From TrEMBL:
UniProt xrefs under InterPro entries: Asn/Gln_tRNA_amidoTrase-B-like, GatB_Yqey_C_2, YqeY/Aim41, YqeY/Aim41_N
Classification via Pfam families: YqeY
Organism domain of life: Bacteria
Protein name: Glutamyl-tRNA amidotransferase
Residues making up the signal peptide according to the UniProt record: none
Stored Gene3D superfamilies: 1.10.10.410, Uncharacterised protein YqeY/AIM41 PF09424, N-terminal domain
């Protein structure tokens, strides 16, 4: 079963359970997936669906930070609940050590040195680790690898 099929099945389960918060979040996710498919005129595979989920999770984390800073805990709690629903659809994340090892291997493979090679290394890293790691952690690991 593809990830998109799993999300659709979960939507049906949320409908049957009358879980309106979960249902709303899953519908939002499916709408984002459908929008991407329509915009690019393709059918998304699991990796592309994970990228959409990743983007939505990043948006939720940013919103939580802004709502918390503004003292709107009610909205921050709503975003946190959506974040928990979305995280279910991500694959197992790599640990910091695994990210460092992968980045070191890519830097060595490319022969990259210095901060000027950041774009080249990030391009290669994104292809290999997309959906498997938090890109903020990956970016920090690339900076460390190129600095020393």
């Amino acid at each position: 079963m593809s990830l998109k099929d799993q999300i659709t099945a979960d939507m049906k389960d949320a409908m049957r359970a009358k879980d309106s918060e979960r249902l709303g979040t899953i519908r939002l996710l499916l709408a984002a997936v459908k929008q991407k498919e329509v915009d690019e005129q393709i059918t998304l595979d699991d990796a592309a669906v994970v990228a959409v989920v990743d983007r939505l999770i990043k948006q939720r984390k940013d919103s939580i930070g802004q709502f918390t800073a503004a003292g709107r805990t009610d909205l921050a709690d709503k975003e946190s609940a959506e974040l928990k629903v979305l995280e279910v659809y991500l694959p197992q994340r790599l640990s910091a050590e695994e990210i460092d090892a992968a980045v070191q291997a890519i830097v060595a493979g490319l022969g990259a040195t210095g901060p000027g090679a950041m774009g080249q290394v990030m391009g290669a890293v994104k292809q290999q680790l997309a959906g498997k790691a938090d890109m903020a952690l990956v970016s920090a690991a690339v900076k460390r690898a190129l600095a020393g």
